[in-house]
Every structure is written in C-alpha cells, then in structure tokens.
Design a protein that fits this description.
Layout: E1 8-9, H1 25-36, E2 43-45, H2 57-71, E3 77-80, H3 86-98, E4 103-106, H4 116-129, E5 134-139, H5 150-159, E6 163-168, H6 174-182, E7 190-193, H7 200-205, E8 210-211, H8 218-229, H9 233-253, H10 255-264, H11 282-294
C-alpha cells in the first residue's frame, strides 16, 4: 500500500455539485487537474472542506476512486475517513485500503468526548481492525471538531503508534503546534496546520511540516510555502497579506467561497453546496470579484475569468 512523507501544501479538495444537487463527476476531475497544476505536494479527499458530512458512503467511495484515477500517480493522496461511529470509520478505512492507499485522516467523533483514554481507544480500535493503516489525527476546533488539548493529543499519539501525523487546527493553532512538537513521541513524523491557511506563516515558523488548506488558491499557498522553505520570509508575508482578505470570507462562507473562487478561475460552473451555508448576494459577489482582481497577477494554475452573479 502507498505511503509518503507528508510535507508542504496538501489542499483538501471540495466536492462539486450539479445544479440539481447531484455530484458532478466531470467537475471533480477538473478540480483534481487544477490541484496538479498548482505545484502542491499532495491532495486530501474527502475532508470537512469536501462537505463530507453531506455525502453518502457510496458517493464518497465513487468520488475517491475518481480522484485517484484522475491523479494518475501525479500526486499522492491522503484519504479522509472520518465518520460518526467507529464501525463506519473502519468501513471507510477498509475502502481506502482496497484502493491501495494506507494514509487516512480521521477526526474522532464528538460523541467520544475529549478524554484522552477514550480517544486513544477509538484510534487503537481502527489500527487493530485495519492492519497497515497510517493515521493522520485531525484535531479540528469546536463546534465541528473535538478541540483536544495538546496534552490530550500527545497522550493519544503516544498510545497509538499508527498515528504518524497530527493535523492541528484549533484556533489559534500556533501554541498547540509548538506544544505537540516539543513532546512528540518518536513515531510522530510531523504536525500539519489547517484552518484555511489563515495561520500558515506562524505554523511554519513553529515547525509545522505542512498545511492542509482548501483548494481554491492552492497555487499561491504552494508558492508561499516554497518561499518560507527558501528563507524568503518577506515574499511569503506579502503573499499571505494579499490573500488574507479572501480567506477571511472563507472563514464563514467556507465551501461556497471555495467554489465561487473556482468559478472565477474557470474550474467550476456554480457554487452549489449541500452544507447549510447561505447563498452570496450581489454585494458579496462583487466583493469577492474585487479581492480576486487584486491578486490576479499571482494566479498560476488557471486564469481569472468573469462570471455572472
């Protein structure tokens, strides 16, 4: 089964829907192609930014197969396997393994709570049921995630050697990343940032091995990470400051902002979501267009287009 070192920018791919709400298979392939053209190190699917809670198990598996097929070995893939119950998570992990993959990202169900022993038992049960699995522990903020403390994350990781990475995205993420790295067990290979890359420079400077933002400006995030790795902090900060206003809209509009930006970049035909996110009004759309116009010179993987409101 495939495994790779996780470093750099690994965007979480969104799930495109047709006007009738059905999954859009052709658009899914275009999103994968866009990611491949963005100089990222790998991709993640499905995750929270993929509206995973609003996909059926059948849709998840079909889309995962499409993503893997369209990648064609161009980039590695981390598969999301979060689900509401342990049995469902195990079923999703086994599907991933059936495709020849071993790296899975899992957020423990909120029903388990934040007790480190209970969370460790959850991950240990997955490891026992799915030999060979390599787990990325996702620690998302409340209300969607468990919001585990750094001490709890460390206790869970220490108890389950199959946990090889942590995606730490509590808000703010910086201090928890430092705390986890300071006392990380030997088998923990790294800590990733998330949170839409709104804290990416601080995360990098604290020792994060990479970032898992949404996909809409993956090319700029890849360029930002490359600048940081090369010691060009001023360049990275310029890119960060120019894109942050857009990401602030993403902090509440979430997948709808991702899809609107991908519309402007010629990748998607609509910003349809299944998640309960209000539609943009005309002023929202005008503001997003204005912000995109201000970073048009940074867009590498696809040109900036004009779309009707």
């Amino acid at each position: 089964m495939e495994s790779t070192t996780i470093q750099g920018v690994w965007p979480v791919l969104c799930t495109p829907f047709a006007a009738d709400g059905a999954i859009d298979r052709a658009a899914m392939r275009r999103i994968v192609g866009f990611a491949c053209d963005s100089a990222v190190q790998g991709v993640v699917f499905p995750g929270f930014a993929s509206e995973v809670d609003d996909l059926t198990a059948t849709e998840r598996f079909e889309l995962l197969q499409i993503v893997l097929d369209e990648l064609g070995g161009r980039l590695p893939l981390i598969a999301g396997a979060s689900a509401p119950t342990l049995d469902e998570v195990i079923a999703r992990v086994r599907e991933v393994q059936s495709l020849g993959l071993r790296q899975v990202m899992i957020q423990a169900p909120k029903a388990i709570g934040t007790d480190a022993a209970a969370v460790a038992d959850f991950y240990a049960a997955i490891a026992a049921a799915c030999p060979g699995v390599e787990i990325i522990l996702q620690n998302a903020p409340a209300p969607r995630g468990s919001d585990l403390s750094p001490a709890a994350v460390l206790a869970v990781a220490a108890a389950v050697p199959e946990i090889r990475y942590v995606k730490e995205e509590t808000i703010p993420s910086g201090a928890p990343i430092s705390a986890i790295l300071a006392d990380a067990p030997g088998h923990l290979a790294g800590v990733m940032g998330g949170g839409g890359a709104r804290f990416v420079i601080d995360e990098f400077l604290r020792g994060a091995c990479g970032a898992m933002p949404a996909v809409e400006i993956a090319d700029i995030h890849a360029r930002m990470w490359q600048a940081l790795k090369a010691g060009r902090e001023a360049e990275a900060r310029s890119l960060y400051e120019r894109t942050l206003p857009l990401l602030m809209i993403q902090s509440h509009a979430r997948m709808r902002l991702t899809k609107r930006v991908l519309m402007l970049r010629g990748i998607l035909d609509n910003d349809m979501v299944r998640a309960r996110i209000p539609p943009f009004d005309a002023r929202d759309i005008a503001e997003i267009q204005a912000l995109m116009d201000r970073i048009a010179d940074l867009l590498v993987a696809a040109p900036l287009a004009r779309v009707a409101a």
